[in-house]
Amino acid sequence: MTSKTLNQFLDDCIAELKENGLYNAIDVVQGANGPVITIDGVEKINLSSNNYLGLAADNRLKAAAKQAIDSHGVGSGAVRTINGTLDLHIQLENKLAQFKGTEAAISYQSGFNCNMAAISAVMDKNDAILSDSLNHASIIDGCRLSKAKTIRFGHSDMKDLRQKAKEAAESRAYNKIMVITDGVFSMDGDIANLPDIVAIAEEFDLITYVDDAHGSGVTGNGAGTVKHFGLEKRIDFQMGTLSKAIGVVGGYVAGKANLINWLKARSRPFLFSTALSPADTIASAKALEILMGSTELNEQLWKNGTYLKGELKKLGFNVGVSETPITPCIIGDEKQAQMFSKRLFEEGVYAKAIVFPTVPRGTGRVRNMPTAAHTTEMLNEAVSVYEKVGKELGII
Ligand SMILES: *Cc1c(COP(=O)(O)O)cnc(C)c1O
């Protein structure tokens, strides 16, 4: 057998994706991300962003970013340990620690990068990681990078977690054992059972790691899922992103001072990749200031989420088990989910189909992400389009 050329490989793979309806054409958004976006010159009600609080184009963040560019330029100049640590980074990290109720925090260039960095700085081939089966791709990759033994437990299945934790602990095969979970699962909008996870972790001396990318700014009056359950003192790693509710870009880990010091000494994206830019850093700090100063945006987000979910449910859509503003409409068949999304688009609603492998096969869905910035009129318009398309395709 001769080996494939790159072109043969790519042609085969892309053809297969297209055949299975899994090839995603990427739309170009003209202008800012907000509750209404423009694509090909046409306005659409946007129900696909993670811009939960509408901060991505907030005037206060924009003003802060412009000021930071004037005072600190556009780039950090180096990795943090060489001479890229700006006073702005320290200000941001102090605010993050305050926001999360921890001793310290460290920022990274993205949430994805954070999981690459933090898991492998602490876990190695002599360790084991208990990982929820629906954890985010960046957790899966971070675990792989660490070379620890990954042991998957059923999604939010506490019996399975306890059993596997017990087996791992009693085997005495591992130096350290970690349990890692999303705080909010973004495909269904359900919240991790952190009280039980913490109880199991304390029973078997597990390290605890919560990736709260979709919880921060959303749950716990905005402070996140760990705060929602009052577990700030009992979770070792509180990881989050600055790119979703915070509206900018970047990631962070909050925890005890010794953990943060170790990550500053040993985590590779911190040591070998240039720090967040001044504008991103200060805009993120501004967002945290807004969040810590008022729950107004958070309340509006929940109000909009509850409203949209209620209206779609009334129409007969299956909105699943969401406990957060995330509102999936589960359709099932992949191709039908994609057709549904396409028809919504043509009618002026931007809500993307999410299909295998992002969600299990046969659970294709259109996922709606209402934000604090949507008006009731926008949501009503979206609901009436849902009704029209739902009837047309025989879904309701
Ligand atoms: C989005 C997301 C990330 C990655 O965050 P970025 O800042 O976008 O890189 C990590 N974990 C989870 C659970 C996410 O949803």
UniProtKB/TrEMBL annotation:
Which residues belong to any copy of the Aminotransferase class I/classII large domain? 43-384
InterPro entries listed in its UniProt record: Aminotrans_II_pyridoxalP_BS, Aminotransferase_I/II_large, AON_synthase_class-II, AONS_Archaea/Firmicutes, PyrdxlP-dep_Trfase, PyrdxlP-dep_Trfase_major, PyrdxlP-dep_Trfase_small
Keywords from UniProt, A to Z, are: Pyridoxal phosphate, Transferase
Is Transferase given among the entry's keywords? yes
Source species, domain of life: Bacteria
Write down the required cofactor(s). pyridoxal 5'-phosphate
What family name appears in the similarity comment? Belongs to the class-II pyridoxal-phosphate-dependent aminotransferase family.
Q: Which PANTHER family match?
A: CLASS II AMINOTRANSFERASE/8-AMINO-7-OXONONANOATE SYNTHASE, LD36009P
Its quaternary organisation is: Homodimer.
Q: What is this protein called?
A: Glycine C-acetyltransferase
